[in-house]
């Protein structure tokens, strides 16, 4: 419906009008407003034509830029010329703008109301008089522009009204013309677009189409591919794009359901004729057959600049049936294709750009769901928890949010709870129908791969899964690639396989539909189903895989031959399960045997699995030599026998398992010897012997050409490292930390590709050979205890002063990572006595000019960190409680200079310095985990051994024991979020978070000093919201084993911010919020918990001023060596018996104290 301004409306109300109109009316108000124009407007409105009329806007002032934008966005303009039209400069400005827009294919329709068109063309009569008057008072160039616009408009054939006309009939003829243009496009005018229905609530659509529209405008590519999971919103997005841009083309067409309609020749012909009719408007044009239709389309459309959308395409032939070779389009034509197959769009040539549609973020998902469930932007307060359960289930898939929102709308909370439980067990058919289309397009082997991943291997490493599935003759490299291309699975940055929860549920539902009897299905993973099949012995040859994971450790009474009927079983995975007796049968066709804590000391005597790929049996009672000698697994690739206490010797693997790639024997404390043959295994990539405290004998020589990772950490009795008889360019990570190795062989130089080395011991000094300087790729050096470098260059308590100079003097050209674990200071009184200059790192560390990461842990003696090389990126000095405030200030200052932060940058809204305060922060007990569960979170965030080598791009970070945020952070808050405004581009940005450790009970508070008698670990999640659109700012950060309050600084260069979040910046002013939370935490001794006591941000902002001033000064300086209280800790927080904290007086959620403005030299 068109908008008419109310009488007396001001110009400010104009900005709230809708942006897009079908028709813009230009007229002289005093001539026509209350008669002809009001009747014309009403007739257009009744016909459903969205019309703009600037009724009663104040005249005489300069025409607003907003009005010009309305003209630009309108599909067509009707100029009603009347006798006094030219006397209005406002009307003439409108006309000039309309004529300008005509050059961009916008329609201009003149109506001559009681004036002769020739009078306007020749510019005589009242038009001539008015223009002559303007020339006296106006700029001549402007008047000439008006004259030219009048002449051009008068030359267009329009409608002429005079006193002999019937006004009603005349207006109806105009409306009919406009209606034909809008809907039928059979008029002589250039066709205009019929708007497509997009969605009832198009939430999040603007952010998703912004990049695509930018690409369409700037890219010369004819074709744009939009791909993504079914139900993700591809069709919705393309409809919105179509509506916005189709008016810029000479012809346009939106073809829906191309995949479905292309199933028959008749369907293809129907699509061809629909395409021709939509663009040419000729109902009588028939193509006859498919081949002729391709040529007709090319011949008739190749001379036109067209926009064509092909929605839901899954095969290249469907495009070819409509477009032939896709190489004949006129310049600036655009073809948009939506598909679920990423590979399809890659086959269409180099003039093609692609865009993936991602899931909605948390805020968008909640809004879309709320719109359908509650008809409002947010859920009802008492339904919020239930709504969040739905959001978590849907994982940002719009289809699911819409369907479930409509289903739950108007229902009671009890009905919601019941429905959500049903969703999780029984998939919604409407959602599944859409998702299953992609699955149905796979061949049989690809379907098997998809179902195996959905039921068993989601979250596993891609290469691990491929090796397993290849052994099943599924051609997994090609098959997994196909699944990725069809958006059915994804691979994350750690190379782990993942899929949307609803796709996984669909896959499991497909398996469950195979039979009503679990024992007749191909895959079993539901604990109750597996238990039923095993205890009743109802399995069959149809069962391909079993995963039995008990919710808690349990014993199950099973028949010894309960797996005998499952002769085709390939995957057997068990967890938390202990049988009451030994199994007498395991299928010989097994590819995966994964059973931690396997209850028997041996495998069945008739078990000879020729194709076994994975043997994971940590914490079991197996005796390794007997096992391997008997089963002879030539195909065995992955073996995990961690914490198997009955393993004393690693036997000859060159005969039994010659193809082993990964071998994990961590914590096998009784392992004494590793056979010499292990040193010659050509395919072994990873050997982990961490914590094998009884190990003494390694192979005499290693020549493993595929080896990438070798870990001997805490093998305390290993005294000799093997010779390296030939170059090993693939070995990237070697850990010899905390061993008894005193000397390395000169052949160490053959570890040519080594990138990270952990070395040293607190019980002895390791003497390195001179050949260590010949390692060209060494980047990371972790030093534990004391290490003797050649030529008297040492690292240790004895000669810290020379150590860093030795690096640059003797080599290590690529070395950029140093870790000096100073816990060696605590080993004995002998180490504590010197306390001379060893507690400070000397300034000649500057000679180490490639240093990027500097880590020091648990040093009570370290007082100062000197100025570091300009290459520095991260400094972690956890639990180093003797660091003085001045050293910490200097460290922050150096990072400020490296990042080129301008000094004295002030936010007009911020009035003073904010003291970090844990008093107002309550402990989040819901995020507390046991120590063992927290370790699982850590493994999840660091899933592979390759993480030891992972480099997380350009970032800057500091972790130091401190409580208060430096005052040069120009935005500060005692909350866990910061809000500011920024311009159209990001500048380099840094935030700082104050973590405080608070006691869990009152009696702990009475005992605690600055260093807590506890070790606390936590994960911190940081999110960014820009103009209401939230997403994760960075991967979760883990903080481990901290014993006191710490300050964490993190900065990202503007280029990375712009690349990652620039699409969310919508204009000259953008609202940005940075928020953080402790997502998981654990306390080793249960005495303290972490809280976020404050947050700061340093950013160039355009925040509006704020007048509130809050003064608070509950602080105390405990640094006797410094007069500056900027970093002084607060008094210990007052606590209550329930662990909550009393809040000091504050206003507006902020507590502040005034500080002077500082620069880098004095802050």
Count all strands and give the number. Answer: 46
Instruction: Kindly provide the radius of gyration, computed on alpha-carbon positions and rounded to a whole number of angstroms.
Output: 37 Å
The amount of beta strand, in percent, is 15-25%
Largest sheet: 20 strands, mixed
Q: What is the approximate shape? A: globular
Helix content: 25-40%
Report the end-to-end length measured between terminal Cα atoms: 60 Å
Average per-residue pLDDT, rounded, comes to 80
**Tally the helices: what do you get?**
32
The stretches of 5 or more residues where confidence is low (pLDDT under 50) are: 1-18, 183-193, 792-811, 820-841, 911-916, 1107-1163
Structural class: alpha/beta
Descriptive labels:
five-stranded parallel β-sheet; alpha/beta; single chain; 30% helix; 20-stranded mixed β-sheet; 1163 residues; 46 strands; 32 helices
Give the topology, please:
Blueprint: E1 23-27, H1 29-46, E2 51-52, H2 65-73, E3 76-81, H3 89-102, E4 107-113, H4 117-122, H5 125-137, H6 140-154, E5 159-161, H7 167-184, H8 205-218, E6 223-227, H9 234-245, E7 251-255, H10 258-261, H11 265-280, H12 290-301, E8 306-313, H13 316-323, E9 334-339, H14 342-346, E10 352-356, H15 362-374, H16 384-394, H17 398-408, H18 413-425, H19 429-440, H20 444-457, H21 462-470, H22 476-485, E11 490-491, E12 497-498, H23 501-512, E13 523-524, H24 527-536, E14 545-556, E15 571-579, E16 592-594, E17 614-616, H25 624-631, E18 638-640, E19 649-650, H26 653-656, E20 662-664, E21 673-674, E22 686-688, E23 701-702, E24 709-711, E25 723-724, E26 733-737, E27 756-760, E28 766-767, E29 780-784, E30 787-788, E31 794-795, H27 800-810, E32 817-821, H28 829-832, E33 853-857, E34 874-878, H29 885-898, E35 913-914, H30 931-941, E36 956-960, E37 971-973, E38 977-982, E39 989-999, H31 1002-1007, E40 1016-1026, E41 1029-1032, E42 1037-1042, E43 1046-1052, H32 1054-1061, E44 1070-1083, E45 1088-1098, E46 1152-1153
Parallel strand pairs: 1-2, 1-3, 3-4, 4-5, 6-9, 6-10, 7-8, 8-9, 13-14, 14-15, 15-16, 16-17, 17-18, 18-20, 19-21, 20-22, 22-24, 23-25, 24-26, 26-27, 27-29, 28-30, 29-32, 32-33, 33-34, 34-36
Antiparallel strand pairs: 11-12, 30-31, 35-46, 36-43, 37-45, 38-44, 39-43, 39-45, 40-41, 40-42, 40-44
Helix pairs in contact: 1-7, 3-6, 8-9, 11-12, 12-13, 15-17, 16-18, 20-22, 20-23
């Amino acid at each position: 419906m068109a908008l008419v301004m109310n009488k007396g409306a001001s110009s400010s109300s104009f900005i709230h009008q809708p942006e897009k109109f079908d028709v813009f009316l230009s007229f002289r108000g005093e001539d026509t407003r209350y008669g002809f124009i009001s009747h014309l407007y009403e007739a257009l409105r009744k016909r459903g034509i969205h019309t703009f009329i600037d009724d009663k806007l104040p005249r005489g002032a300069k025409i607003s830029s907003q009005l010009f934008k309305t003209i630009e966005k309108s599909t067509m303009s009707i100029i009603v010329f009347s006798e006094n039209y030219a006397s209005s400069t406002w009307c003439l400005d409108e006309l000039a703008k309309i004529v300008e827009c005509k050059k961009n294919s916008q329609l201009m329709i003149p109506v001559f109301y009681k004036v002769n068109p020739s009078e306007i063309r020749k510019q005589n009569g009242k038009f001539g008089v008015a223009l002559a008057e303007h020339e006296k008072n106006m700029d001549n160039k402007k008047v000439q522009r008006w004259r030219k616009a009048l002449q051009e408009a008068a030359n267009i054939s329009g409608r002429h009204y005079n006193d002999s006309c019937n006004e009603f009939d005349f207006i109806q003829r105009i409306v009919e013309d406009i209606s034909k243009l809008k809907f039928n496009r059979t008029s002589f005018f250039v066709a205009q677009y019929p708007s497509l229905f997009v969605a009832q609530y198009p939430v999040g659509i603007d952010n998703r189409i912004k990049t695509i529209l930018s690409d369409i405008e700037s890219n010369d590519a004819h074709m744009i591919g939009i791909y993504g999971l079914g139900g993700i919103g591809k069709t919705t997005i393309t409809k919105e794009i179509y509506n916005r841009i189709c008016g810029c083309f000479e012809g346009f067409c939106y073809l829906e359901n191309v995949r479905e309609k292309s199933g028959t020749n008749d369907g293809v012909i129907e699509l061809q004729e629909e395409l021709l009719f939509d663009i040419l408007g000729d109902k009588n044009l028939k193509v006859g057959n498919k081949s002729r239709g391709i040529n007709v389309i090319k011949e008739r459309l190749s001379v036109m600049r067209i926009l064509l959308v092909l929605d839901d395409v899954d095969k290249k032939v469907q495009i070819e049936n409509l477009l032939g070779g896709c190489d004949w389009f006129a310049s600036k034509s655009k073809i948009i294709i939506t598909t679920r197959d990423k590979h399809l769009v890659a086959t269409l040539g180099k003039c093609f750009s692609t865009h993936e549609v991602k899931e909605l973020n948390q805020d968008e998902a909640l809004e879309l769901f709320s719109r359908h469930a509650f008809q409002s932007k947010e859920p009802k307060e008492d339904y919020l928890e239930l709504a969040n359960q739905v959001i978590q289930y849907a994982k940002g898939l719009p289809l699911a949010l819409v369907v479930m929102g409509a289903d739950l709308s108007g229902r009671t909370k009890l009905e919601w709870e019941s429905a959500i439980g049903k969703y999780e067990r029984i998939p919604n058919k409407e959602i599944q129908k859409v998702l299953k289309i992609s699955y149905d397009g796979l061949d049989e082997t690809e379907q098997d791969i998809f179902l195996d991943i959905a039921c068993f291997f989601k979250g596993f490493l891609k290469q691990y899964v491929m090796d397993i599935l290849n052994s099943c003759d599924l051609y997994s490299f090609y098959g997994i690639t196909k699944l990725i291309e069809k958006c059915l699975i994804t691979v994350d940055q750690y190379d782990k396989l993942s899929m949307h929860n609803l796709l996984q549920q669909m896959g499991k539902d497909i398996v469950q539909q195979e039979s009503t009897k679990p024992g007749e299905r191909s895959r079993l993973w539901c604990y109750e189903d597996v238990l039923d099949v095993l205890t009743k012995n109802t399995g069959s040859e149809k069962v391909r895989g079993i995963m039995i994971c008990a919710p808690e450790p349990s014993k199950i009474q099973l028949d010894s031959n309960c797996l005998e009927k499952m002769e085709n079983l390939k995957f057997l995975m068990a967890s938390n399960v202990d049988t009451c007796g030994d199994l007498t049968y395991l299928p010989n066709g097994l590819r995966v045997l994964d059973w931690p804590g396997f209850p028997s000391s041996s495998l069945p005597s008739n078990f000879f699995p020729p194709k076994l790929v994975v043997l994971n049996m940590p914490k079991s009672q197996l005796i390794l030599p007997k096992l391997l000698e008997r089963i002879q697994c030539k195909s065995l690739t992955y073996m995990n026998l961690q914490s198997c206490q009955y393993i004393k010797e690693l036997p000859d693997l060159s005969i039994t398992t010659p193809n082993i790639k990964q071998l994990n024997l961590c914590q096998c404390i009784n392992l004494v010897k590793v056979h010499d043959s292990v040193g010659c295994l050509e395919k072994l990539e990873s050997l982990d012997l961490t914590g094998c405290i009884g190990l003494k004998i390694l192979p005499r020589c290693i020549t493993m050409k595929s080896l990438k990772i070798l870990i001997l950490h805490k093998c305390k009795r290993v005294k000799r490292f093997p010779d390296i008889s030939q170059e090993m360019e693939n070995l990237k990570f070697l850990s010899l930390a905390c061993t008894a190795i005193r000397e390395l062989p000169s052949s160490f130089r053959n570890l040519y590709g080594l990138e990270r080395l952990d070395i040293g011991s607190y019980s002895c000094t390791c003497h390195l050979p001179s050949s260590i300087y010949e390692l060209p790729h060494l980047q990371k050096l972790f030093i534990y205890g004391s290490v003797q470098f050649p030529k008297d260059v040492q690292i240790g308590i004895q000669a810290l002063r020379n150590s860093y100079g030795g690096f640059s003097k003797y080599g290590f050209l690529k070395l950029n990572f140093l870790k000096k674990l100073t816990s060696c200071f605590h080993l004995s009184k002998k180490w504590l006595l010197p306390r001379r200059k060893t507690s400070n790192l000397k300034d000649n560390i500057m000679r180490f000019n490639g240093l990027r990461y500097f880590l020091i842990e648990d040093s009570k003696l370290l007082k100062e960190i000197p100025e570091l090389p300009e290459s520095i990126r991260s400094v972690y000095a956890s639990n180093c409680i003797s660091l003085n405030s001045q050293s910490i200030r200097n460290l922050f200052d150096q990072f400020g200079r490296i990042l080129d932060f301008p000094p004295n940058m002030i936010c007009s809204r911020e009035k003073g310095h904010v003291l970090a305060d844990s008093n107002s922060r309550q402990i989040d007990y819901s995020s507390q985990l046991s120590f063992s569960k927290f370790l699982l979170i850590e493994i999840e965030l660091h899933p592979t051994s390759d993480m030891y080598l992972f480099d997380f791009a350009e970032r800057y970070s500091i972790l130091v024991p401190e409580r208060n945020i430096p005052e040069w952070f120009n935005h500060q808050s005692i909350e866990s979020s910061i809000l500011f405004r920024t311009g159209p581009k990001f500048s380099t940005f840094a935030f700082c978070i104050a973590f405080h450790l608070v006691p869990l009970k009152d009696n702990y508070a009475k005992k605690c000093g600055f260093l807590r008698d506890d070790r606390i670990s936590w994960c911190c999640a940081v999110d960014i919201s820009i103009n209401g659109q939230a997403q994760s700012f960075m991967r979760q950060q883990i903080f481990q084993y901290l014993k006191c309050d710490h300050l964490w600084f993190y900065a990202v260069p503007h280029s990375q911010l712009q690349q990652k979040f620039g699409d969310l910046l919508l204009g000259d002013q953008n609202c940005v919020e940075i928020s953080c939370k402790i997502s998981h935490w654990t306390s080793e001794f249960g005495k303290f918990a972490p809280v976020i006591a404050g947050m700061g941000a340093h950013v160039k902002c355009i925040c509006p001023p704020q007048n509130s001033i809050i003064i608070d000064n509950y602080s105390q300086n405990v640094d006797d060596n410094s007069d500056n209280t900027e970093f002084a800790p607060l008094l210990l927080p007052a606590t209550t018996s329930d662990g909550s904290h009393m809040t000091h007086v504050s206003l507006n959620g902020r507590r502040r104290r005034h500080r002077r403005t500082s620069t880098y030299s004095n802050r």
